[in-house]
Design a protein that fits this description.
The protein is mainly beta. The protein has no helices and 5 strands. The protein has strands at 2-4, 11-13, 24-26, 33-39, 42-46. The strands form 2 sheets. Strands 3-4-5 form a 3-stranded antiparallel β-sheet, with no helix packed on it. A two-stranded antiparallel sheet has the order 1-2. The N and C termini lie far apart (41 Å). Bound molecules: zinc ion.
Length: 67
Amino acid sequence: MSVVCPECDNPLDIDVDDVEEGEIIQCDECGTDLEVVSSDPLELAPVDEEGYDDEDETPHVSEDEDE
Ligand SMILES: [Zn+2]
C-alpha cells in the first residue's frame, strides 16, 4: 500500500504488515519523522518535536470577519 507524506506529498511505499501503530518512520524525501497513527487504513502524521498539539480547534482565527 502506498501513502503520501503529509509534509511533502512524496509517495511512500510502505508495507502495512511491516509497520505498527505508533511506529515512527521517516520520509526519505523531506526527512520528516512520521508516526503511524493508524495501520488500517494506513495513516501517517508528522511527529512534532515539541510534542503533540492537543488542540482540536482550528488554530487559525478569522479576524473580525463575518461569522
Ligand atoms: Zn516528506
